[in-house]
Amino acid sequence: MTARAAAFRVVRRVFEEDAYADRAFRSAAEELDARERAFAMQLAYGTVQRVRTLDHVAETLARRPMARVDPPVRAALRLGTYQLLFLEGVADHAAVHETVELVRAAGAHRAIGFTNAVLRRVAEQGPALLASLGDATPEEAALAHSYPDWVARAWWRELGREEAIGLMLAQNKPPEHAVRADGRMEVVDEVPPELVEEGRAWPQSRGSYLAGDAVGARPGERVLDLCAAPGGKATQLAETAREVVAVELHPGRARELAENAVRLGAANVRVVNADARELPADLGSFDRVLVDAPCSGLGVLNSRPDLRWRARPLPDLQRELLAAGRERLRPGGTLTYAVCTIHAPENEEVVDGLGLRFDDLGAGRPDYRHPRRPEFLLTLPHVHGTSGFFVARMSV
After folding, report:
1. Which end of the chain is more exposed for a tag (fewer CB within 10 A), N or C?
2. How many domains does the chain fold into?
3. Are residues 276 and 376 in the same domain?
């Protein structure tokens, strides 16, 4: 298995089987050494991420809609076009030749000449075609930078053109590597897997850490963490709180959460495998509740390349989870809402409907103050260099 063959398999699974890129990659790249694995990830994730732009260039030069191209040939054209337009250090002839070999290995012999011809046109004419794509409107920018139109329109509306484009550019770059170790965050060149396996560090973005820190847990307190897997914030909270009850709906993720708590030595984390909206009646009177809700994930698109194509807003679910969390608080407790998205209908519009008093989080963390609502926090990848998180804390 070569790096290109592994990437080819990932791209096919994502777009033909609706597989998650990270899971598809784990199985496809398990036999690769570290160097080949890194190259395969760059190829696979970059191709999935840039697929809208790649398809536009390829079908323009092929004079054929990509939807009419056989799946293995389509995947190969996407990989080859990505290498020719976005990957530095790969010679054009190598990109073309190796991509044609993928088509041959897939048994699509009748498409070998077509693939070769299209990729040669991409090598010659693709850079100019790519440079001609504008970004004066949300729709133009979405095509040029490979995003769904609805995401571009949302960011245009909430942030303005310049900020929206900056955010698009930032989320097409690799995410930061950061770890939590000994109660503090460190940005590193890479996350050593042995440190994670030994429980000496936890990979966590600075945006995610900020969300956990904003809960404000104190010694002696009981904290409820809803939707807690894989456990980054739960174990972070456990460093201060007396007890953390971490709720996770999916059995497999709940087991992973429990294993991670043990690995990190967080003996005061209790895992509950349940729907957060249907918790046992005796599970209540918490000092603090964190609702780290499922969301569209528009703040973590650089680390989850396929998410931009499957993302959808979830405001109704978020409101239900907040209502469930509120019921479990003691009088005078605090309810913290955190989502890894940059999307007002899932952020401020969700918490505004609760009728609660907001704590002024921005006063103590001015660098992360929400640009329109200073009582909230909002990390922006193009401004802060970390994942995008919205955080609000309310007193009950």
Report:
1. N
2. 3
3. yes
**162 shares a domain with 228:** no
Residues with a catalytic annotation lie at 340
- Residue 68 is classified by DSSP as G
Report helix angle 138-145 to 161-170, nearest 10: 10
Structure tokens at 149: 């139109």
pLDDT score of 383: 97
pTM for the whole thing? 0.94
Q: Which of 40, 38, 43, 117 is nearest to 79 (CA)?
A: 43
Q: In what order do the strands lie in the sheet with 178-181?
A: 184-187, 178-181, 202-203
User: Could you tell me if 143 and 250 lie in one domain?
Assistant: no
Asked whether the CA dihedral 215, 219, 220, 226 is positive or negative, the reply is: positive
351-385 b/e (C-beta count within 10 Å ≥ 16 → b) = beebebebbebbeeeeebbbeebebbbbbbbbbbb
- What pLDDT digit, counting tens, does each position of 181-237 carry? 988 899 998 888 888 889 999 999 999 999 999 999 999 999 999 999 999 999 999
What SS3 state is found at 266? Answer: coil
Query: Which residue segment(s) compose the domain that 383 sits in?
Result: 178-395
Give me the count of residues in the chain.
396
Kindly report the CATH number assigned to the domain that includes residue 52: 1.10.940.10
Q: Which distant-in-sequence residues (6+ apart) come within 8 Å of 80 by Cβ?
A: 95, 96, 99, 115, 119, 122
Do 188 and 319 share a domain, yes or no? yes
Do 109 and 85 share a domain, yes or no? yes
